[in-house]
Amino acid sequence: MTELAQRQSRMRQRDVADSLGITVQAVSKHFRRLLVEELVTFSGVEYVLTPRGLERLVGYTKFLQAQARKAASCLRMERLWCAIACKPISAGEEVGLVMKNGVICAVSRSSKDAKAFGTAVLETPTGEDVALRDMRGTINLRRGSVTVLTIPSINRGGSRKVDLVKVQKIQMRSNPDRIGVMGTVARAVANKLNFKVDLEFGVTRSAAMAALRGLNVLVLSTGRMTNRVLEEVEKVNIRHSCEIPCMVEDCCRLSSLEQKQRSSRSERYDLDYGPNSKVPLVSPALQSSGLTRPVLRRTNSLTLKRIK
After folding, report:
1. Bridge partners for 248 per DSSP
2. Tens of pLDDT along 129-188?
3. Domains, the chain, ordered by start
4. Burial level of 304, CB count in 10 A (0-12/13-18/19+)?
């Protein structure tokens, strides 16, 4: 059932057998029991997890979590969390926890911004990592955003065809916490404008995760690399049940003729796909992967529970 949930609820017996390292016959036997209990359905080719099956799986998961906590308590195991000390901290001192620039920081217990708390294990000076136990409360996260500036590829003129004034205006307006570049042309544009580049490798994942932690990210993307950023942000939104806004701006400097042609295409687009149309606004890759299912819960906070 867990394998079905991880793979968007559709699998064949062979897929489950290969994943779990057991025989197809064993998988078939278990699927027959799941069909009888109406926890899965069979479409003739693939097995699909039913709402009842999903509910049962959630119940199993909660039971296992409770048993794991009980075992940890019996073995006197204690999970430690880490934060950056924003002030000198004494051993055993209770501190408040806030998110600053995407990093969890330990501040004074009386800080008005602190909604989560923990107890320091060791004495820690300012600026160092402090080990914390007995975590509880909620760390509020400021929702970050991702702004993608599409830069023409070298085949379309490269950095020479970029509207540098527009790029600089967007950068000043968005006031990003992090700037990323994707592609050599994008790096050249950043060099021309003296941008401090924070992300250059693994940019799509880094940008999405930085926005998840409340940072505003500006990405200069060469050519068709923009789609990679959009898909990664959408995956993170689904995985973490959140809504990271992602804006795209085309920063190619157009001639008068190109501007007229683009305006004409935009008019046709508006006619074909108006606000009342039902055209899906997700990429074909995400549609085929099954990641466009509805999100059941949305949150902009990180909840910490005491581990007994």
Report:
1. 148
2. 999 988 888 887 777 899 999 999 888 888 999 999 999 999 999 889 999 999 999 999
3. 2-74 (1.10.10.10), 81-140 (2.40.340), 145-265+285-289 (3.40.1010)
4. buried
